[in-house]
Fold this sequence. Notes:
Elements: H1 2-19, E1 41-48, E2 56-57, H2 76-80, E3 98-108, H3 110-121, E4 124-130, E5 133-138, E6 140-145, E7 156-162, E8 164-172, E9 175-183, E10 188-190, E11 197-209, H4 228-269, H5 272-275, H6 293-319, H7 329-356, H8 361-371, H9 373-390, H10 398-425, H11 452-478, H12 487-514, H13 521-545, H14 551-593
Parallel strand pairs: 8-11
Antiparallel strand pairs: 1-2, 1-4, 3-11, 4-5, 6-7, 7-10, 8-9
InterPro entries: EMP70 (IPR004240)
Protein name: Transmembrane 9 superfamily member
Transmembrane segments: 235-256, 295-318, 330-353, 365-392, 398-424, 454-472, 484-508, 520-544, 556-584
Amino acid sequence: MANTHFLILFLLLFPILQSSSPSVAASPSDHRYHIGDNIPFFVNKVGPFNNPSETYEYYDLPFCQPDPIVRKKESLGEVLNGDRLCNALYEFKFREDKIGETLCQKRVNVDEVASFKEAIKRDYYLQFYLDDLPFWGFIGKLEEDTWSGSGSGGGGTKYYLFTHLQFHLLYNGDQVIQVNAFADPNHSIDITNHVHLDVHFTYSVTWNATTLHFHNRMDRYSTASLLPMYRQLHWFSFINSSVIILLLLALLALLYTRHLNTDFKKFSNANEEDKEVGWKSIHADVFRQPPNSSLFFALVGTGTQLLILLFVLLFLAFTGTLHPYNRGGLLNYLVLLYALSTVIAGYSSASFYGQFVGNGWERNVSIAAILYAGPVFVVASILNIFAISYGATTALPFGSIVVILVIFVFLAIPLLVFGGVVGYRFRIEFQGPSSTKKYPREIQQLAWYRRTPFQMFIGGLVPFSAIVLQLHQVYASMWGYKIYTLPSILFVTFITAIVIISLVNIGLTYIQLSVEDHEWWWRSVLCGGSTAIFMFAYSIYFYVRSNMSGLLQLSFFIGYNACLCYAFFLIFGAISFRVSLLFVRHIYHAVKRE
Protein backbone atom coordinates (compact mmCIF):
# COMPACT_ATOMS: atom_id res chain seq x y z
CA MET A 1 0.00 0.00 0.00
CA ALA A 2 2.85 2.38 0.86
CA ASN A 3 4.58 1.60 -2.44
CA THR A 4 1.39 2.44 -4.32
CA HIS A 5 1.13 5.73 -2.42
CA PHE A 6 4.65 6.79 -3.38
CA LEU A 7 4.16 5.63 -6.98
CA ILE A 8 1.12 7.89 -7.31
CA LEU A 9 3.08 10.83 -5.91
CA PHE A 10 5.97 10.18 -8.29
CA LEU A 11 3.71 10.02 -11.33
CA LEU A 12 2.05 13.30 -10.32
CA LEU A 13 5.20 15.22 -9.44
CA PHE A 14 7.44 13.99 -12.28
CA PRO A 15 5.88 16.22 -14.98
CA ILE A 16 6.15 19.23 -12.65
CA LEU A 17 9.80 18.60 -11.85
CA GLN A 18 10.57 17.86 -15.47
CA SER A 19 8.98 21.11 -16.65
CA SER A 20 10.68 23.27 -14.02
CA SER A 21 13.98 23.27 -15.88
CA PRO A 22 15.41 26.66 -16.84
CA SER A 23 13.84 26.50 -20.30
CA VAL A 24 11.08 24.59 -22.03
CA ALA A 25 12.47 21.84 -24.22
CA ALA A 26 12.55 22.50 -27.95
CA SER A 27 12.54 19.80 -30.61
CA PRO A 28 16.34 19.47 -30.46
CA SER A 29 17.07 19.59 -26.76
CA ASP A 30 20.19 21.71 -27.27
CA HIS A 31 18.39 24.27 -29.52
CA ARG A 32 20.78 23.60 -32.38
CA TYR A 33 19.61 23.25 -35.99
CA HIS A 34 20.92 22.46 -39.42
CA ILE A 35 19.95 24.55 -42.42
CA GLY A 36 16.43 23.57 -43.43
CA ASP A 37 15.47 22.02 -40.08
CA ASN A 38 11.97 22.77 -38.83
CA ILE A 39 11.94 25.05 -35.78
CA PRO A 40 9.27 24.44 -33.12
CA PHE A 41 6.60 27.11 -33.36
CA PHE A 42 3.43 27.46 -31.29
CA VAL A 43 0.59 29.95 -31.04
CA ASN A 44 -0.41 30.57 -27.45
CA LYS A 45 -3.15 33.00 -26.53
CA VAL A 46 -4.83 36.29 -27.34
CA GLY A 47 -6.32 38.97 -25.15
CA PRO A 48 -6.76 42.69 -24.47
CA PHE A 49 -3.38 44.37 -24.08
CA ASN A 50 -4.46 46.22 -20.93
CA ASN A 51 -6.00 43.15 -19.23
CA PRO A 52 -3.25 40.58 -18.62
CA SER A 53 -5.58 38.14 -16.83
CA GLU A 54 -8.18 38.16 -19.61
CA THR A 55 -6.71 35.77 -22.15
CA TYR A 56 -8.36 33.43 -24.61
CA GLU A 57 -7.20 30.61 -26.82
CA TYR A 58 -5.64 31.68 -30.10
CA TYR A 59 -8.20 29.87 -32.20
CA ASP A 60 -11.13 31.46 -30.38
CA LEU A 61 -10.66 34.08 -33.08
CA PRO A 62 -11.25 32.90 -36.67
CA PHE A 63 -7.61 32.64 -37.72
CA CYS A 64 -6.30 30.09 -40.20
CA GLN A 65 -6.39 26.74 -38.45
CA PRO A 66 -4.42 23.54 -39.05
CA ASP A 67 -6.24 20.25 -39.31
CA PRO A 68 -6.10 18.86 -36.74
CA ILE A 69 -5.29 21.35 -33.98
CA VAL A 70 -2.71 19.70 -31.72
CA ARG A 71 -2.22 21.00 -28.21
CA LYS A 72 1.23 20.98 -26.72
CA LYS A 73 1.54 18.97 -23.51
CA GLU A 74 1.87 21.53 -20.74
CA SER A 75 3.12 21.51 -17.19
CA LEU A 76 0.96 22.41 -14.21
CA GLY A 77 2.65 25.81 -14.01
CA GLU A 78 1.86 26.58 -17.64
CA VAL A 79 -1.80 25.67 -17.11
CA LEU A 80 -1.98 27.85 -13.99
CA ASN A 81 -0.40 30.66 -15.99
CA GLY A 82 -3.14 30.41 -18.62
CA ASP A 83 -0.86 29.14 -21.42
CA ARG A 84 -2.55 27.02 -24.11
CA LEU A 85 0.02 26.26 -26.79
CA CYS A 86 -1.11 24.82 -30.10
CA ASN A 87 0.37 24.08 -33.51
CA ALA A 88 -0.12 26.46 -36.44
CA LEU A 89 0.11 26.66 -40.23
CA TYR A 90 3.20 28.88 -40.01
CA GLU A 91 6.31 26.99 -41.03
CA PHE A 92 9.84 28.03 -40.08
CA LYS A 93 12.92 26.37 -41.51
CA PHE A 94 16.31 27.33 -40.13
CA ARG A 95 17.95 30.07 -42.25
CA GLU A 96 15.46 29.75 -45.10
CA ASP A 97 13.74 33.00 -46.11
CA LYS A 98 10.16 33.17 -47.25
CA ILE A 99 8.53 36.10 -49.01
CA GLY A 100 4.76 36.43 -49.29
CA GLU A 101 4.11 32.82 -48.27
CA THR A 102 0.39 31.99 -48.28
CA LEU A 103 -0.95 30.94 -44.91
CA CYS A 104 -4.51 30.35 -46.07
CA GLN A 105 -7.33 31.78 -48.14
CA LYS A 106 -10.31 32.20 -45.85
CA ARG A 107 -13.88 33.41 -46.29
CA VAL A 108 -14.82 35.34 -43.17
CA ASN A 109 -18.54 35.53 -42.38
CA VAL A 110 -20.40 38.35 -40.65
CA ASP A 111 -20.02 36.90 -37.14
CA GLU A 112 -16.30 36.35 -37.63
CA VAL A 113 -15.88 39.91 -38.86
CA ALA A 114 -17.65 41.11 -35.74
CA SER A 115 -15.29 39.10 -33.52
CA PHE A 116 -12.28 40.57 -35.33
CA LYS A 117 -13.69 44.08 -34.93
CA GLU A 118 -14.23 43.58 -31.20
CA ALA A 119 -10.68 42.26 -30.83
CA ILE A 120 -9.23 45.26 -32.70
CA LYS A 121 -11.36 47.65 -30.67
CA ARG A 122 -10.02 46.19 -27.41
CA ASP A 123 -6.43 46.17 -28.71
CA TYR A 124 -5.94 42.39 -28.68
CA TYR A 125 -2.41 41.05 -28.84
CA LEU A 126 -1.20 37.69 -30.13
CA GLN A 127 1.45 35.62 -28.39
CA PHE A 128 3.72 33.14 -30.15
CA TYR A 129 6.64 30.91 -29.19
CA LEU A 130 9.44 29.99 -31.55
CA ASP A 131 12.27 27.87 -30.17
CA ASP A 132 10.96 28.84 -26.69
CA LEU A 133 11.35 32.55 -27.47
CA PRO A 134 8.15 34.49 -26.72
CA PHE A 135 7.10 37.29 -29.04
CA TRP A 136 3.96 39.23 -29.71
CA GLY A 137 1.94 40.86 -32.45
CA PHE A 138 -1.32 42.71 -32.96
CA ILE A 139 -4.45 41.81 -34.90
CA GLY A 140 -5.27 45.12 -36.53
CA LYS A 141 -5.57 48.85 -36.07
CA LEU A 142 -8.12 51.61 -35.66
CA GLU A 143 -8.15 54.78 -37.72
CA GLU A 144 -10.36 57.83 -37.48
CA ASP A 145 -11.92 58.63 -40.84
CA THR A 146 -11.68 62.38 -41.36
CA TRP A 147 -13.78 62.28 -44.54
CA SER A 148 -17.12 62.10 -42.77
CA GLY A 149 -19.15 62.66 -45.88
CA SER A 150 -17.65 60.14 -48.24
CA GLY A 151 -17.58 56.40 -48.49
CA SER A 152 -20.08 53.85 -47.36
CA GLY A 153 -18.99 54.14 -43.76
CA GLY A 154 -19.81 57.84 -43.63
CA GLY A 155 -16.88 58.66 -41.36
CA GLY A 156 -16.14 57.59 -37.82
CA THR A 157 -13.79 54.81 -36.83
CA LYS A 158 -12.36 52.45 -39.42
CA TYR A 159 -11.27 48.91 -38.53
CA TYR A 160 -8.36 47.33 -40.39
CA LEU A 161 -7.36 43.68 -40.08
CA PHE A 162 -3.71 42.84 -40.68
CA THR A 163 -3.39 40.08 -43.26
CA HIS A 164 0.40 39.83 -43.46
CA LEU A 165 2.95 39.16 -40.73
CA GLN A 166 6.65 39.78 -41.22
CA PHE A 167 8.95 37.63 -39.05
CA HIS A 168 12.53 38.81 -38.55
CA LEU A 169 14.84 36.20 -37.06
CA LEU A 170 18.45 36.46 -35.94
CA TYR A 171 20.81 33.51 -35.67
CA ASN A 172 24.34 32.84 -34.49
CA GLY A 173 25.90 29.72 -35.93
CA ASP A 174 23.33 26.97 -35.61
CA GLN A 175 21.13 28.59 -32.93
CA VAL A 176 18.18 30.99 -33.00
CA ILE A 177 18.91 34.17 -31.05
CA GLN A 178 16.00 36.53 -31.60
CA VAL A 179 12.62 36.74 -33.28
CA ASN A 180 10.28 39.66 -33.91
CA ALA A 181 6.91 39.88 -35.60
CA PHE A 182 5.67 42.98 -37.44
CA ALA A 183 2.37 43.59 -39.14
CA ASP A 184 2.61 45.28 -42.52
CA PRO A 185 0.16 48.24 -42.62
CA ASN A 186 0.22 48.02 -46.41
CA HIS A 187 -1.33 44.55 -46.17
CA SER A 188 -4.57 45.15 -44.31
CA ILE A 189 -8.23 44.91 -45.13
CA ASP A 190 -11.06 47.22 -44.10
CA ILE A 191 -13.59 45.26 -42.00
CA THR A 192 -15.59 48.26 -40.78
CA ASN A 193 -18.77 47.02 -42.43
CA HIS A 194 -20.31 43.73 -41.36
CA VAL A 195 -20.05 41.85 -44.67
CA HIS A 196 -18.65 38.56 -45.89
CA LEU A 197 -15.03 38.91 -46.88
CA ASP A 198 -12.49 36.79 -48.70
CA VAL A 199 -9.20 37.26 -46.86
CA HIS A 200 -5.80 36.15 -48.10
CA PHE A 201 -3.48 35.66 -45.07
CA THR A 202 0.25 35.64 -45.83
CA TYR A 203 3.55 35.86 -44.00
CA SER A 204 7.25 36.41 -44.69
CA VAL A 205 10.36 35.16 -42.91
CA THR A 206 13.79 36.77 -43.11
CA TRP A 207 16.99 35.56 -41.43
CA ASN A 208 20.03 37.62 -40.48
CA ALA A 209 23.23 36.78 -38.63
CA THR A 210 24.12 38.34 -35.28
CA THR A 211 27.10 38.27 -32.93
CA LEU A 212 24.88 37.92 -29.85
CA HIS A 213 25.51 34.65 -28.04
CA PHE A 214 22.83 32.09 -27.26
CA HIS A 215 23.15 32.40 -23.49
CA ASN A 216 22.42 36.14 -23.80
CA ARG A 217 19.39 35.85 -26.02
CA MET A 218 16.93 36.49 -23.16
CA ASP A 219 18.61 39.76 -22.18
CA ARG A 220 16.40 41.78 -24.49
CA TYR A 221 13.36 40.89 -22.38
CA SER A 222 14.98 42.41 -19.29
CA THR A 223 16.35 45.64 -20.73
CA ALA A 224 13.38 47.63 -19.40
CA SER A 225 14.42 46.89 -15.82
CA LEU A 226 17.96 48.05 -16.54
CA LEU A 227 17.15 51.44 -18.07
CA PRO A 228 18.75 54.40 -16.28
CA MET A 229 15.35 55.65 -15.08
CA TYR A 230 14.56 52.37 -13.34
CA ARG A 231 18.08 52.11 -11.92
CA GLN A 232 17.57 55.55 -10.39
CA LEU A 233 14.27 54.42 -8.88
CA HIS A 234 15.93 51.33 -7.39
CA TRP A 235 18.73 53.41 -5.89
CA PHE A 236 16.33 56.03 -4.57
CA SER A 237 14.25 53.29 -2.96
CA PHE A 238 17.35 51.77 -1.39
CA ILE A 239 18.55 55.13 -0.03
CA ASN A 240 15.08 55.93 1.28
CA SER A 241 14.93 52.60 3.11
CA SER A 242 18.44 53.05 4.52
CA VAL A 243 17.59 56.48 5.93
CA ILE A 244 14.47 55.11 7.61
CA ILE A 245 16.46 52.24 9.14
CA LEU A 246 19.10 54.63 10.48
CA LEU A 247 16.46 56.89 12.01
CA LEU A 248 14.72 53.93 13.63
CA LEU A 249 18.01 52.59 14.96
CA ALA A 250 18.77 56.00 16.44
CA LEU A 251 15.35 56.21 18.06
CA LEU A 252 15.59 52.70 19.49
CA ALA A 253 19.10 53.34 20.74
CA LEU A 254 17.77 56.44 22.47
CA LEU A 255 14.88 54.43 23.84
CA TYR A 256 17.19 51.74 25.16
CA THR A 257 19.86 54.00 26.65
CA ARG A 258 17.60 56.63 28.18
CA HIS A 259 14.46 54.73 29.12
CA LEU A 260 15.28 51.05 29.54
CA ASN A 261 18.56 51.68 31.34
CA THR A 262 16.82 54.23 33.55
CA ASP A 263 14.11 51.67 34.31
CA PHE A 264 16.70 49.00 35.16
CA LYS A 265 18.51 51.34 37.55
CA LYS A 266 15.28 52.48 39.15
CA PHE A 267 14.06 48.92 39.68
CA SER A 268 17.39 47.81 41.14
CA ASN A 269 17.62 50.71 43.59
CA ALA A 270 13.97 51.05 44.60
CA ASN A 271 12.14 49.44 47.46
CA GLU A 272 10.12 46.33 46.84
CA GLU A 273 6.85 48.25 46.66
CA ASP A 274 8.23 50.89 44.31
CA LYS A 275 9.51 48.27 41.91
CA GLU A 276 6.00 47.26 40.88
CA VAL A 277 5.42 50.13 38.46
CA GLY A 278 5.47 50.44 34.68
CA TRP A 279 6.23 47.39 32.58
CA LYS A 280 7.86 45.69 35.59
CA SER A 281 4.47 45.46 37.34
CA ILE A 282 3.07 43.06 34.73
CA HIS A 283 5.89 40.51 34.90
CA ALA A 284 3.43 37.86 36.14
CA ASP A 285 1.07 38.41 33.17
CA VAL A 286 3.27 39.24 30.23
CA PHE A 287 3.99 35.57 29.38
CA ARG A 288 0.39 34.45 29.80
CA GLN A 289 -0.74 32.44 26.77
CA PRO A 290 -2.71 34.54 24.28
CA PRO A 291 -6.45 34.08 23.72
CA ASN A 292 -7.31 31.74 20.84
CA SER A 293 -3.91 30.13 21.20
CA SER A 294 -4.54 27.48 18.55
CA LEU A 295 -5.27 30.11 15.91
CA PHE A 296 -2.44 32.36 17.09
CA PHE A 297 0.32 29.76 16.92
CA ALA A 298 -1.08 28.36 13.65
CA LEU A 299 -0.71 31.88 12.24
CA VAL A 300 2.88 32.08 13.46
CA GLY A 301 3.67 28.65 11.99
CA THR A 302 2.08 29.42 8.62
CA GLY A 303 3.81 32.79 8.46
CA THR A 304 7.15 31.10 9.17
CA GLN A 305 6.49 28.58 6.38
CA LEU A 306 5.69 31.31 3.86
CA LEU A 307 8.77 33.27 4.96
CA ILE A 308 11.06 30.29 4.29
CA LEU A 309 9.24 29.64 0.99
CA LEU A 310 9.80 33.24 -0.12
CA PHE A 311 13.49 33.09 0.78
CA VAL A 312 13.90 29.89 -1.25
CA LEU A 313 12.19 31.45 -4.29
CA LEU A 314 14.38 34.54 -4.05
CA PHE A 315 17.46 32.34 -3.75
CA LEU A 316 16.46 30.36 -6.86
CA ALA A 317 15.89 33.61 -8.75
CA PHE A 318 19.19 35.04 -7.52
CA THR A 319 21.16 31.97 -8.63
CA GLY A 320 19.47 31.93 -12.05
CA THR A 321 17.58 28.68 -11.50
CA LEU A 322 14.23 30.44 -11.68
CA HIS A 323 13.96 32.62 -14.78
CA PRO A 324 11.19 35.25 -15.09
CA TYR A 325 10.69 34.35 -18.77
CA ASN A 326 10.32 30.61 -18.15
CA ARG A 327 6.62 30.16 -18.72
CA GLY A 328 5.00 28.40 -15.78
CA GLY A 329 8.34 27.97 -14.00
CA LEU A 330 7.49 30.19 -11.03
CA LEU A 331 4.12 28.52 -10.48
CA ASN A 332 5.67 25.05 -10.78
CA TYR A 333 8.14 25.85 -8.03
CA LEU A 334 5.49 27.61 -5.99
CA VAL A 335 3.12 24.63 -5.89
CA LEU A 336 5.85 22.10 -5.18
CA LEU A 337 7.73 24.18 -2.60
CA TYR A 338 4.53 25.11 -0.79
CA ALA A 339 3.65 21.44 -0.41
CA LEU A 340 7.15 20.57 0.81
CA SER A 341 7.38 23.54 3.20
CA THR A 342 4.22 22.61 5.11
CA VAL A 343 6.50 20.58 7.37
CA ILE A 344 7.86 23.93 8.61
CA ALA A 345 4.35 25.19 9.41
CA GLY A 346 3.56 22.01 11.34
CA TYR A 347 6.83 22.08 13.27
CA SER A 348 6.76 25.77 14.14
CA SER A 349 3.10 25.96 15.19
CA ALA A 350 3.16 22.74 17.25
CA SER A 351 6.46 23.68 18.90
CA PHE A 352 5.19 27.08 20.04
CA TYR A 353 1.86 25.62 21.10
CA GLY A 354 3.56 22.93 23.14
CA GLN A 355 5.77 25.48 24.88
CA PHE A 356 3.06 27.90 25.96
CA VAL A 357 -0.14 25.82 26.09
CA GLY A 358 0.63 22.12 26.29
CA ASN A 359 -1.86 19.53 25.11
CA GLY A 360 -4.14 19.92 22.10
CA TRP A 361 -1.54 20.50 19.40
CA GLU A 362 -3.59 18.46 16.92
CA ARG A 363 -6.21 21.23 16.64
CA ASN A 364 -3.46 23.79 16.26
CA VAL A 365 -1.89 21.90 13.33
CA SER A 366 -5.31 21.37 11.74
CA ILE A 367 -5.87 25.13 11.73
CA ALA A 368 -2.42 25.64 10.21
CA ALA A 369 -3.40 23.30 7.37
CA ILE A 370 -6.24 25.57 6.22
CA LEU A 371 -5.17 28.98 7.49
CA TYR A 372 -3.67 30.02 4.16
CA ALA A 373 -4.64 27.20 1.81
CA GLY A 374 -8.34 27.50 2.76
CA PRO A 375 -8.88 31.16 1.76
CA VAL A 376 -6.74 30.68 -1.35
CA PHE A 377 -8.85 27.69 -2.39
CA VAL A 378 -12.07 29.69 -1.92
CA VAL A 379 -10.75 32.66 -3.90
CA ALA A 380 -9.36 30.41 -6.65
CA SER A 381 -12.69 28.58 -6.94
CA ILE A 382 -14.60 31.86 -7.35
CA LEU A 383 -12.11 33.14 -9.92
CA ASN A 384 -12.27 29.83 -11.79
CA ILE A 385 -16.05 30.18 -12.08
CA PHE A 386 -15.60 33.67 -13.53
CA ALA A 387 -12.96 32.42 -15.97
CA ILE A 388 -15.13 29.50 -17.11
CA SER A 389 -18.09 31.81 -17.70
CA TYR A 390 -15.88 34.04 -19.88
CA GLY A 391 -14.20 31.10 -21.63
CA ALA A 392 -10.77 32.43 -20.62
CA THR A 393 -7.60 30.34 -20.58
CA THR A 394 -7.12 31.20 -16.90
CA ALA A 395 -9.89 28.68 -16.13
CA LEU A 396 -8.32 25.53 -14.69
CA PRO A 397 -9.20 22.22 -16.35
CA PHE A 398 -10.62 19.52 -14.12
CA GLY A 399 -7.47 17.42 -14.42
CA SER A 400 -5.26 20.24 -13.10
CA ILE A 401 -7.60 20.76 -10.14
CA VAL A 402 -7.36 17.06 -9.33
CA VAL A 403 -3.54 17.16 -9.49
CA ILE A 404 -3.41 20.13 -7.09
CA LEU A 405 -5.80 18.45 -4.66
CA VAL A 406 -3.85 15.20 -4.75
CA ILE A 407 -0.56 17.03 -4.09
CA PHE A 408 -2.18 18.82 -1.15
CA VAL A 409 -3.81 15.72 0.34
CA PHE A 410 -1.04 13.18 -0.24
CA LEU A 411 2.03 15.38 0.15
CA ALA A 412 1.31 18.64 1.96
CA ILE A 413 -0.97 17.27 4.70
CA PRO A 414 1.28 14.30 5.65
CA LEU A 415 4.32 16.59 5.82
CA LEU A 416 2.37 19.08 7.92
CA VAL A 417 1.36 16.37 10.39
CA PHE A 418 4.89 15.00 10.47
CA GLY A 419 6.24 18.46 11.25
CA GLY A 420 3.64 18.85 13.99
CA VAL A 421 4.60 15.56 15.62
CA VAL A 422 8.31 16.42 15.54
CA GLY A 423 7.72 19.97 16.78
CA TYR A 424 5.60 18.83 19.71
CA ARG A 425 7.80 15.88 20.69
CA PHE A 426 11.06 17.86 20.59
CA ARG A 427 9.79 21.20 21.83
CA ILE A 428 11.96 23.21 24.19
CA GLU A 429 10.32 23.94 27.52
CA PHE A 430 9.66 27.64 27.95
CA GLN A 431 11.35 29.08 31.03
CA GLY A 432 9.78 32.41 31.95
CA PRO A 433 11.59 34.83 34.26
CA SER A 434 8.65 34.65 36.67
CA SER A 435 5.60 32.52 37.30
CA THR A 436 2.26 33.49 35.76
CA LYS A 437 -0.61 34.47 38.04
CA LYS A 438 -3.82 32.51 37.93
CA TYR A 439 -5.96 35.57 37.19
CA PRO A 440 -4.80 38.27 34.74
CA ARG A 441 -4.18 41.83 35.81
CA GLU A 442 -6.85 44.32 34.79
CA ILE A 443 -5.78 46.71 32.03
CA GLN A 444 -6.55 50.37 32.48
CA GLN A 445 -8.32 52.48 29.88
CA LEU A 446 -5.82 53.48 27.20
CA ALA A 447 -5.60 56.71 25.21
CA TRP A 448 -6.59 56.47 21.55
CA TYR A 449 -3.02 56.69 20.31
CA ARG A 450 -2.03 53.69 22.46
CA ARG A 451 -4.78 51.43 21.15
CA THR A 452 -4.44 48.74 18.51
CA PRO A 453 -5.88 50.59 15.45
CA PHE A 454 -3.49 53.54 15.74
CA GLN A 455 -0.50 51.31 16.46
CA MET A 456 -1.41 49.20 13.44
CA PHE A 457 -1.47 52.36 11.35
CA ILE A 458 2.01 53.37 12.52
CA GLY A 459 3.34 49.81 12.35
CA GLY A 460 2.20 49.48 8.74
CA LEU A 461 2.85 52.96 7.37
CA VAL A 462 6.55 53.19 8.25
CA PRO A 463 7.67 49.92 6.53
CA PHE A 464 5.33 50.56 3.61
CA SER A 465 6.90 53.97 2.95
CA ALA A 466 10.27 52.24 2.58
CA ILE A 467 9.14 49.63 0.03
CA VAL A 468 6.46 51.47 -1.97
CA LEU A 469 8.72 52.23 -4.96
CA GLN A 470 9.82 48.63 -5.33
CA LEU A 471 6.24 47.51 -4.76
CA HIS A 472 5.18 49.57 -7.75
CA GLN A 473 7.76 47.76 -9.90
CA VAL A 474 6.49 44.39 -8.68
CA TYR A 475 2.88 45.30 -9.49
CA ALA A 476 3.97 46.56 -12.92
CA SER A 477 5.59 43.17 -13.52
CA MET A 478 2.57 41.21 -12.27
CA TRP A 479 -0.10 43.22 -14.05
CA GLY A 480 1.79 44.51 -17.06
CA TYR A 481 4.40 43.33 -19.50
CA LYS A 482 7.50 44.49 -17.66
CA ILE A 483 9.66 41.54 -16.61
CA TYR A 484 11.21 42.00 -13.17
CA THR A 485 14.79 40.81 -13.53
CA LEU A 486 16.51 42.27 -10.47
CA PRO A 487 16.05 39.65 -7.74
CA SER A 488 19.00 41.07 -5.80
CA ILE A 489 17.22 44.43 -5.44
CA LEU A 490 14.02 42.62 -4.48
CA PHE A 491 15.91 40.59 -1.88
CA VAL A 492 17.51 43.71 -0.38
CA THR A 493 14.12 45.43 -0.28
CA PHE A 494 12.57 42.47 1.52
CA ILE A 495 15.39 42.36 4.08
CA THR A 496 14.95 46.11 4.55
CA ALA A 497 11.23 45.64 5.19
CA ILE A 498 11.96 42.91 7.75
CA VAL A 499 14.46 45.11 9.60
CA ILE A 500 12.11 48.10 9.67
CA ILE A 501 9.14 46.00 10.82
CA SER A 502 11.28 44.49 13.57
CA LEU A 503 12.54 47.86 14.82
CA VAL A 504 9.13 49.51 14.69
CA ASN A 505 7.42 46.69 16.57
CA ILE A 506 10.07 46.56 19.28
CA GLY A 507 9.29 50.20 19.96
CA LEU A 508 5.52 49.67 19.83
CA THR A 509 5.77 46.65 22.17
CA TYR A 510 7.79 48.67 24.69
CA ILE A 511 5.26 51.51 24.56
CA GLN A 512 2.45 49.01 25.18
CA LEU A 513 4.19 47.37 28.12
CA SER A 514 5.14 50.71 29.65
CA VAL A 515 1.44 51.52 30.22
CA GLU A 516 0.98 48.12 31.94
CA ASP A 517 -0.82 46.50 29.00
CA HIS A 518 0.27 42.85 28.97
CA GLU A 519 -1.80 41.73 25.96
CA TRP A 520 1.00 42.23 23.47
CA TRP A 521 0.79 38.89 21.66
CA TRP A 522 -1.95 39.56 19.13
CA ARG A 523 -1.06 43.23 18.85
CA SER A 524 2.48 42.38 17.76
CA VAL A 525 1.09 40.22 14.95
CA LEU A 526 -1.46 42.82 13.88
CA CYS A 527 1.02 45.71 13.93
CA GLY A 528 3.57 43.74 11.91
CA GLY A 529 1.04 42.38 9.45
CA SER A 530 -0.61 45.77 8.92
CA THR A 531 2.05 46.57 6.31
CA ALA A 532 0.23 44.10 4.04
CA ILE A 533 -2.97 46.13 4.46
CA PHE A 534 -1.17 49.17 3.05
CA MET A 535 0.15 46.96 0.23
CA PHE A 536 -3.38 45.90 -0.66
CA ALA A 537 -4.63 49.49 -0.51
CA TYR A 538 -1.83 50.51 -2.88
CA SER A 539 -2.83 47.73 -5.28
CA ILE A 540 -6.30 49.32 -5.51
CA TYR A 541 -4.64 52.66 -6.27
CA PHE A 542 -2.51 50.93 -8.91
CA TYR A 543 -5.62 49.47 -10.55
CA VAL A 544 -7.42 52.82 -10.63
CA ARG A 545 -4.41 54.48 -12.28
CA SER A 546 -3.99 51.67 -14.82
CA ASN A 547 -5.90 51.01 -18.05
CA MET A 548 -7.30 47.68 -16.86
CA SER A 549 -11.06 47.26 -17.16
CA GLY A 550 -13.83 44.69 -17.08
CA LEU A 551 -15.30 42.42 -14.44
CA LEU A 552 -13.03 39.46 -15.21
CA GLN A 553 -9.82 41.48 -14.91
CA LEU A 554 -11.07 43.26 -11.78
CA SER A 555 -11.98 39.98 -10.08
CA PHE A 556 -8.58 38.43 -10.84
CA PHE A 557 -6.76 41.57 -9.77
CA ILE A 558 -8.59 41.78 -6.44
CA GLY A 559 -8.42 38.02 -5.82
CA TYR A 560 -4.73 37.54 -6.62
CA ASN A 561 -3.65 40.63 -4.69
CA ALA A 562 -5.78 39.63 -1.72
CA CYS A 563 -4.04 36.22 -1.60
CA LEU A 564 -0.62 37.83 -2.03
CA CYS A 565 -1.15 40.48 0.64
CA TYR A 566 -2.67 37.92 3.01
CA ALA A 567 0.51 35.86 2.65
CA PHE A 568 2.61 38.92 3.53
CA PHE A 569 0.31 39.64 6.47
CA LEU A 570 1.13 36.19 7.84
CA ILE A 571 4.85 36.59 7.08
CA PHE A 572 5.23 40.04 8.63
CA GLY A 573 3.00 39.08 11.56
CA ALA A 574 5.14 36.03 12.35
CA ILE A 575 8.34 38.11 12.11
CA SER A 576 6.90 40.82 14.36
CA PHE A 577 5.82 38.31 17.01
CA ARG A 578 9.16 36.52 17.06
CA VAL A 579 11.10 39.77 17.42
CA SER A 580 8.73 41.07 20.09
CA LEU A 581 9.03 37.81 22.01
CA LEU A 582 12.82 38.05 22.00
CA PHE A 583 12.63 41.66 23.20
CA VAL A 584 10.14 40.89 25.99
CA ARG A 585 12.17 37.91 27.21
CA HIS A 586 15.33 40.02 27.16
CA ILE A 587 14.03 42.90 29.27
CA TYR A 588 12.32 40.68 31.86
CA HIS A 589 15.33 38.40 32.19
CA ALA A 590 17.44 41.54 32.64
CA VAL A 591 15.14 42.69 35.46
CA LYS A 592 15.34 39.25 37.06
CA ARG A 593 19.15 39.43 37.04
CA GLU A 594 18.98 42.87 38.65
